[in-house]
């Protein structure tokens, strides 16, 4: 019985990863922000995996979707910097929601977790962009290094608002979707 559950979980993670990859392909820029910052809904399948199975399953969906994206689409830099940033941001977003929901099992706990995820993702990704991600992009693209002031301005005017907007938009889509799938999710959680 345990082996059957393990197979079901692996197949489900693979399926949710494929769906997440397809949703990642349907990205769109947000008006007023740089066009390379794009919103997508690929974190929703990862959140479902984290809720139904384990937080690790959600992390696996985040990892597989980004590996697929880099393997199929490639990267402007030749190195998966954007995909690594997407993986980290996705994990920071879904894990608080998954932990809170798995503990309390209410839509309120999911909403609270998603809002906490938005805050955690926004703060940590701002720091990572300042110290690692933006410098890596400039280095791999052979652009002149950004000044500290230039990076701060980029983070405050683009990265920070983008992460807040993306988190809120995904949360707004996720909550009604989850409300409609709640019975199915609880059934899957029992069988997982």
TrEMBL record:
GO terms for cellular component: plasma membrane. The chain crosses the membrane at residues 6-26, 84-101, 113-134, 154-178. One of its GO terms (molecular function) is riboflavin transmembrane transporter activity. Keywords: Cell membrane, Membrane, Transmembrane, Transmembrane helix, Transport. Pfam families: ECF_trnsprt. The keyword Manganese does not apply. It is a multi-pass membrane protein. It is found in: Cell membrane. InterPro entries: ECF_trnsprt_substrate-spec (IPR024529), RibU (IPR025720). Its main location: membrane. Signal peptide: none annotated. Gene3D superfamilies: 1.10.1760.20. Belongs to the prokaryotic riboflavin transporter (P-RFT) (TC 2.A.87) family. Probably a riboflavin-binding protein that interacts with the energy-coupling factor (ECF) ABC-transporter complex. PANTHER family: RIBOFLAVIN TRANSPORTER RIBU. This is Riboflavin transporter. It comes from Bacillus manliponensis. The lineage of its organism: Bacteria, Bacillati, Bacillota, Bacilli, Bacillales.
